[in-house]
Amino acid sequence: MATVTYQLLKITRIWATVRTLTQGPYYVGGESLRQNIADSEQGVEITLDYQVIDVDTCEPVPNVYVEIWHCNSTGVYSGVVANGNGDSSDQFNLQSKALRGIQATDSDCVAQFNSIVPGHYTGRAPHIHIMVHTNASLYLNETLGNLVYASHVGQAFLDQDLISQVESTAPYKTNDQALTKNSEDSILAQEADTDGVDPFMNYAYIGNGVGDGLFAWLAFGINTTYSSKVTPAALLYESGGLVNPNASAGRPGRLRWRQRYKLW
């Protein structure tokens, strides 16, 4: 994966309230602090930068933990076993950590990940889940533990033209599930219908096309004083992954504030 650096030249504020969004049914607690989350998954390489801003002060927020997770190139999430998520008899998937990880925001208040572009599954356009943890403690095993609280839960999306380019490459084109377009995704619509909110990531090609990899970025605001308990679908321990018997189907949290910034 190529190393990419960039400069934030200008930030334009756009204030908005965001309708309550779901964390989804495939969130796993106990994931590790790591930058490269691709593991052995094949796909279009992408470097992802997320900058976190305080909605009250409009200042970047360092030293908070950004957690992301998304499906693989053929629409399957690691860490969970469920109907509609690949082979539901594959119990080994509970032990996989692919395409999941946590990073602390640095001095520029940016958390960076190396991954692959997510594929699609029935009923959803390609997307990346984002969660921000404030006042969290990093344990010796490089996790935040399984008692999870979040100040922000959201989803980020990709440009439809970019999706088309990616989906024409292997292994994405082997996915026989119907592709849901951005215009057909109900979760995306909740964000896009809110004044001032742009749920799409900015992106640039590393080389001459998607085959050479991508760089994508997004800046968003959080209420640093707000924190809500999150119930994972599965729990990852040092001994392995387990289904959470208390899990719900990705219940949404409270209404929260979000801020969208343009990076020039």
Automatic annotation (TrEMBL):
Reading the lineage from the top rank, the first entry is Eukaryota
Instruction: Tell me the protein's name.
Output: Uncharacterized protein
| Organism expressing this protein natively | Zarea fungicola
